Amino acid sequence: MSRYVFQSPSRYIQGKGEIKSLANEVNKLGDSPLIISDSLVWSLTNKDINESFKSSEMSYKYEEFKGEASENEIARLSQIAKDNDINVIVGVGGGKTSEMFFIYAS
């Protein structure tokens, strides 16, 4: 029998208008976030995300998710996180971006 391990994010937030409190939620986990989403979700959420972070002392880095939760995409995003001293990664959206969703605090 093969061994399977499933780990879910320790924090999942969903609800109308919750994106406006993203900076506050991220601040509970770290201070240098990488936000990932696909281009459609980003076009719908970036204004609210920008406003959320504008009212905080944090800035964030955004990177477009390329559409497949593959080893290459994980390696690419991990390298971006390392290169930018990221200590929180946030996946915004649903579908495959949610499959990629992971948070770590260094």
Q: How would you explain this protein's 3D organization?
A:
- With 106 residues, the chain is an alpha/beta fold.
- The chain has helices at 22-27, 39-54, 71-83, 96-100; strands at residues 33-37, 61-64, 88-91.
- It contains 4 helices and 3 strands.
- A 3-stranded parallel sheet has the order 2-1-3.
- 19% of the residues are buried.
- InterPro entries: ADH_Fe/GldA (IPR001670), Glycerol_DH (IPR016205).
- It holds the Pfam family Fe-ADH.
- It comes from Staphylococcus ureilyticus (Staphylococcus cohnii subsp. urealyticus).
- Keywords: Metal-binding, NAD, Oxidoreductase.
List the helices and strands and how they pair.
Blueprint: H1 22-27, E1 33-37, H2 39-54, E2 61-64, H3 71-83, E3 88-91, H4 96-100
Parallel strand pairs: 1-2, 1-3
Structural class: alpha/beta
Fraction of residues in helices? 25-40%
Strand order of the largest sheet: 2-1-3
- N-to-C CA distance: 34 Å
Jot down its keywords.
106 residues; alpha/beta; 4 helices; globular
Give a quick summary of the entry.
With 106 residues, the protein is an alpha/beta fold.
